[in-house]
């Protein structure tokens, strides 16, 4: 049975991204103490990366363990990326300028 909980925690985090242990417990309907025990087990095996985190919701501090899969990389941010890209028009002018 513990392997099923470990698998469901990993599946949840792969689908939803990084979350606090409290959110994982609510989503999976598992007691927080049990989730923390399984998170510690997964972190020791290298499947999860965890750190202590404090979130403030409406001025109330919520402390928990932030978890993410060890191979998770966040998607790139939307919008323009740094650096200037040459356009086709400017590169064709540069070629003609050398003739």
Description:
The protein is α+β, with helices and mostly antiparallel strands. The protein has a domain at 2-69: Arc Repressor Mutant, subunit A, CATH 1.10.10.10. The protein contains 4 helices and 3 strands. It has helices spanning 2-16, 21-28, 32-45, 88-97, and strands at 19-20, 48-57, 60-69. Helix 2 (21-28) packs across helix 3. The chain is extended and about 60 Å long.
Instruction: Give the C-level CATH assignment of the domain at 2-69.
Output: Mainly Alpha
- So, CATH architecture of the domain at 2-69? Orthogonal Bundle
Strand content: 15-25%
Terminus-to-terminus distance: 75 Å
Described by strand count, sense and barrel closure, the largest sheet is: 3 strands, antiparallel
Topology:
Layout: H1 2-16, E1 19-20, H2 21-28, H3 32-45, E2 48-57, E3 60-69, H4 88-97
Helix pairs in contact: 1-3, 2-3
Condensed summary:
The protein has a domain at 2-69: Arc Repressor Mutant, subunit A. Helices cover 47% and strands 22% of the residues. It has 4 helices and 3 strands, in the order αβααββα.
Please supply descriptive tags for the structure shown above.
alpha+beta, Arc Repressor Mutant, subunit A, three-stranded antiparallel beta sheet, 4 helices, extended
């Amino acid at each position: 049975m513990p392997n099923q909980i470990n698998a469901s925690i990993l599946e949840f985090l792969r689908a939803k991204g990084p979350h606090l242990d409290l959110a994982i417990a609510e989503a999976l309907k598992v007691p927080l103490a049990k989730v923390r025990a399984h998170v510690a087990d997964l972190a020791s095996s290298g499947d999860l990366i965890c750190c202590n985190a404090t979130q403030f919701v409406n001025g109330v501090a919520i402390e928990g363990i932030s978890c993410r899969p060890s191979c998770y990389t966040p998607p790139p941010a939307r919008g323009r990326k740094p650096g200037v890209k040459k356009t086709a028009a400017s590169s064709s002018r540069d070629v003609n300028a050398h003739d």
